[in-house]
Amino acid sequence: MKEIKDFLYKLIRNDATFKSLTGADSKDPRIYFFYPPDDVVVSDEKPCYVTYYLGAGAGLPDPHVNSVQRPDEVYTFDIWGKDIDVIEDVFERIDALFFETNRFETSGYRILRASRERQNDLPDPDDEFRRKIVEYRIGHIMKK
What we know:
This protein is of the alpha+beta class. It is built from three helices and seven strands. Strands 1, 2, 3, 4, 5, 6 and 7 form a seven-stranded mixed beta sheet that branches.
């Protein structure tokens, strides 16, 4: 849902540690929904970036059984960079943000659970980039 997607974006984009690790600034947030811009660069000053998207979600709940709870959503975060240590630092920060913010609210929903589903380290075929893919389940999404 757009409210949750936007909340996750702001949670990470506004974090001072994330900004420091990635070189994010007001013109280049270093976190992008689905795809980075065509001109995204990875350099010493901007050592990595993150893409994210809604990877999976459960079917719609039966309105006769539970009309106030939305189905869980699983968001995939893809961390790209050249230095695996920086990628790990960014992963650990995002992980900490999810665990620190385990319960949160948007204007229309209360989320009572955020948990890591899985993580994978993947080399890029050209050996220039490394990436880590992490999935988080956003669950117990209750309408306000």
